[in-house]
Amino acid sequence: MASTSSFDVTTGVDMMEVQNAVDQASKELLQRYDFKGLKVGIELDMKEKSITLTAPDENRLAAVWDVVQSKMVKRKVPLKNLKPGKIETAAMSSARQVVPIQDGLTQEQAKDVVKFLKEAKLKKVQASINAETVRISGPDKDDLQAAIALLKGHDFGIELTSGTSARTSVVTGTARAGSLGNFRSN
After folding, report:
1. Which sequence spans correspond to the domains of the chain?
2. Does 181 have pLDDT greater than 70?
3. Which end of the chain is more exposed for a tag (fewer CB within 10 A), N or C?
């Protein structure tokens, strides 16, 4: 009986790295001269997986968002998984923005991944949706590596990760000789 190999595709962020980036951004804002004496804030809600930015006006809010983004990039948090919401103006001329953090594929995104792979018509490669992940399986590891390469080359609007767990490696489409760390044999 021929064995099949599979890997999971999902999206996510390391919430500890998000926490570190938010802490670093908060420290920078406290030290920056252009923010001295102003009420600006960055709050991370780990349960809701969101960041709330506050500032006196929209221009300062944009500057706070720039600082947060730069710290996220330094901590290797994918910016594609941060979806800035609408800027809300509040009382006393202050602005607020909630930035949800996407951790896991939505049903629609998972369907897009499956549809994309089916349209690619890879031989004997099957994709199925399992909650917030897409399981891609097939008997030939070369076909699965081709699937990884295709997924890497397509922009789904989020950063995809693949592996036997949600955060083992970024989808790269390259494999080291003798290394099949991204695959699980059944």
Report:
1. 5-12+105-185, 15-100
2. no
3. N
